[in-house]
Design brief:
This protein is mainly α. The chain is built from three helices and no strands. About 75% of the residues lie in helices and about 0% in strands.
């Protein structure tokens, strides 16, 4: 996966995230719809974190003249449980 395709995926997920947040404002009275949107929003947030992590890994390898194609996307569990 290239940097460009990761960036395109990030842009797509950001657009979906905005749409979900907008729908959340409109669907305040529909609890079922709100719950489904919240679940999808959480999944989108996790996928965004994974994409950003993959992009950072690739750029880090490029910085040290290593092959960026040798990295893989880390699991959601790994990315979401980083210590900061």
């Amino acid at each position: 996966m290239s940097d460009e395709s990761i960036t395109a995926r990030i842009e797509s997920l950001v657009a979906e995230e905005k749409d979900l947040r907008s729908r959340e404002q409109r669907e305040r009275d529909d609890e079922d719809a709100l719950e489904e949107d919240r679940k999808r929003l959480r999944a989108v947030e996790v996928e965004l974190d994974r994409c950003w992590d993959l992009l950072r890994q690739r750029r880090g390898r490029e910085e040290f003249d290593l092959d960026p194609d040798d990295v893989k996307a880390r699991s959601a569990d790994t990315v979401e449980n980083y210590e900061q």
